[in-house]
């Protein structure tokens, strides 16, 4: 069966991860058709190998060569699939670029995803960490997805509930890790759209532009402008967006920190705890703009680990570990990495 698949040995993954790490896959397959996944399932040696599933590679830190099979999901296609009284349903295959998909929905006249403009990565990866930005997250619009289960060779459909979405988390990071390949995602976009301007920086950007009743396209443009200003373009500086999650602490911990550091940035949570801005914590440990060799922390945003060119995954991980240790030492807060570290 393997002979029917165009599996490349010793393949560089450099172009397939936004950190630009030159790690190698022992075996590599670009998946442009679900039939290829079925062929992998039917091949006992391929099925037994350690597996890494890559979409846009924008949430991945490769620290060494990968000894098994890397599947790069490259299936394409977007369509309007139906409607009900309140929603229009739009679907995309997993390999579609996320931002291209968002722009396509807006061009079709279906608003909803505009706050999530310019997030790097693919549609298939978007549910894994429940991507979110500027007051909106994927779970707000996710309807269902289909996945190929490499343990059973079957296609399953998951509802929003099945996915157990939480802050940068889902079932795909737990039970379904490395065994489920998301093959398409359907979104439910509201027919009665309302601008989401909860995030004050976005509201400010629009009012600076003199826009008081923004369209979805105005919001998308504003989000693109903010992201371009603050976050490095992975095509120019290797990075994976926020490297750490914003940690959630108890009200007591937050009050104690606030008493000591009055400029601490925190947000109340539904459970009574507080989310702390990890970027603030890292900046206040002196890390913003600091580099060790080619690995470092971005000068415009302390939550972003960057490869200035030629850093290895191990170099980047060393910086990340030092940042985490410094934040723990100074603030007593544990930072958890957001990307998958392999
Ligand atoms: N801040 C600092 N110093 C910094 C960076 C930030 O003090 O160097 C402070 C800012 O002053 C601000 C606060 O931290 O008050 C929050 O910063 P920002 O608005 O940039 O958002 P964030 O919490 O750092 C999160 C997401 C981003 C998302 C933005 C906007 C996480 C881990 N990150 O960042 O998502 O774009 O909000 O909604 O939740 C990603 O996940 O890769 C990502 C980029």
Provide an overview of this structure.
With 342 residues, the protein is α+β, with helices and mostly antiparallel strands. It has three domains: 2-73, Uridine Diphospho-n-acetylenolpyruvylglucosamine Reductase, domain 2 (2-Layer Sandwich); 78-190, Uridine Diphospho-n-acetylenolpyruvylglucosamine Reductase, domain 3; 238-341, UDP-N-acetylenolpyruvoylglucosamine reductase, C-terminal domain (Uridine Diphospho-n-acetylenolpyruvylglucosamine Reductase, domain 1), CATH 3.90.78. The chain is built from nine helices and 20 strands. The chain has helices at 34-42, 44-48, 98-107, 160-163, 200-208, 216-230, 251-260, 278-283, 313-331; strands at 8-12, 24-31, 51-54, 60-61, 66-73, 78-83, 87-93, 132-133, 136-137, 142-149, 154-159, 180-190, 238-242, 248-249, 266-268, 274-276, 291-292, 295-297, 304-307, 340-341. The strands form six sheets. It has a five-stranded antiparallel beta sheet. Strand 17 (291-292) and strand 18 form a beta hairpin. The longest helix is centred in the C-terminal third of the chain and has 19 residues, at 313-331. The radius of gyration is 21 Å and the shape is globular. Uridine-diphosphate-2(N-acetylglucosaminyl) butyric acid binds next to strand 13 and helix 8.
